[in-house]
Amino acid sequence: MKAVILSIIILGISACAVIDPWVYKINIPQGNFIEQRDVDNLRVGMTREQVQFVLGSPVLQDSFRDDTWIYMYRLKPGRGDIVTRELSVQFDNDLLTGISGDFDKHEQFDVPLTE
């Protein structure tokens, strides 16, 4: 009798591994979804308000350095590898001076916007 119960438990546990590929798992996005075309709209000399209009509110503002905003995006798909993207935006006197991270600087980034 114990062998039958033990067999049922083992089969029940192993069935989860067999069924798992057919179970739907949702994608879990977190943070700011930013595309390269959004970053291409940034120009040196933009104000904080202009940067926030283009990219949205940052996920993280450095508490020790008020001149840095960090935008992060993480996607945990139901199946597959986790995708992470990061963009760090630097200001000096409330004007955009530089960006770094997983995105390329646009060739016109160093050309300020004209008013």
UniProtKB/TrEMBL annotation:
- Please provide, alphabetically and separated by semicolons, the GO molecular function terms listed in this UniProt record: protein-macromolecule adaptor activity
Specify the protein's topology with respect to the membrane. Lipid-anchor
Q: Look up the domain of life of the source.
A: Bacteria
Q: Where is the Outer membrane protein assembly factor BamE domain?
A: 31-96
Q: Name one GO cellular component term.
A: Bam protein complex
Principal cellular location given in the protein's record: membrane
Question: What family does this chain come from, according to its entry?
Answer: Belongs to the BamE family.
PANTHER family recorded: OUTER MEMBRANE PROTEIN ASSEMBLY FACTOR BAME
**Any idea what this protein is called?**
Outer membrane protein assembly factor BamE
Q: Which organism is it from?
A: Aliidiomarina minuta
Q: Which gene encodes it?
A: bamE
